[in-house]
Amino acid sequence: MLYELPKQLISAAMAHLNFVLIHPFKDGNGRMARIIQSLALARKSEVAPVFMGIEEYLGRRTQPYYDVLAKVGQNDYSKADYDSELARPWLRFMLTAHLNQALEIRHRIASAGKAAQEMEKLVERSGLPERVEQALYGAMFGNTVTRARYMDALEEAGEPVSEQTASRDLGALAKQGLLIANGDKRDRSYAPGESIKAASREAGLGYKWRDIDPFEVK
User: Fold this and answer.
1) How many C-beta neighbours within 10 Å does residue 195 have?
2) Longest dimension (CA), the chain
3) Dist. CA 114–CA 94, nearest whole Å
4) pLDDT tens-digit profile of 144-182?
5) CATH T-level fold of 127-203
């Protein structure tokens, strides 16, 4: 149940903390601790694991992560004071991480929906077949588009095309300025055109992460 979620977040965070501070291995302790935390959340929560993980947040906050570990572990866990209150900064850090990661995911989902709508409008105005949306969708997220990636995306969508058709589609998108071709014919790739970039910005994709501290006293 969702009302059990805060308890689960704290339990998983403490599993992470205890493992990484015991430091049983010569290398890979942090990585294993994060896996243990994710596993604890996946096993006990009804929320999908993809919405529970904070790997991306921690990857963007490496130094603060190490700083709070040093503070809580007092730089030597084997001799540290075992006062439970010392875990408070760690739990605040982890709960803040979960909040900001959740906000980021919510923003991405909302932005992806807006981007899809804008993409459909662009394709409709272009007069090209609907399948080219697969190419533009990747470009809206700033990804480089290649023929191989376009074909893979269409195959996953259940609409496979030949190399000739894929090349023709991408060429048509480039001709209309939706994509910009780079490289020679053999190794050609495509970057988003100005109209795609504008639609991406309008949808709110690619914004900088915000840091919201739920424990900040105002």
Assistant:
1) 17
2) 70
3) 30
4) 999 999 999 999 999 999 999 999 999 999 999 999 999
5) Arc Repressor Mutant, subunit A (1.10.10)
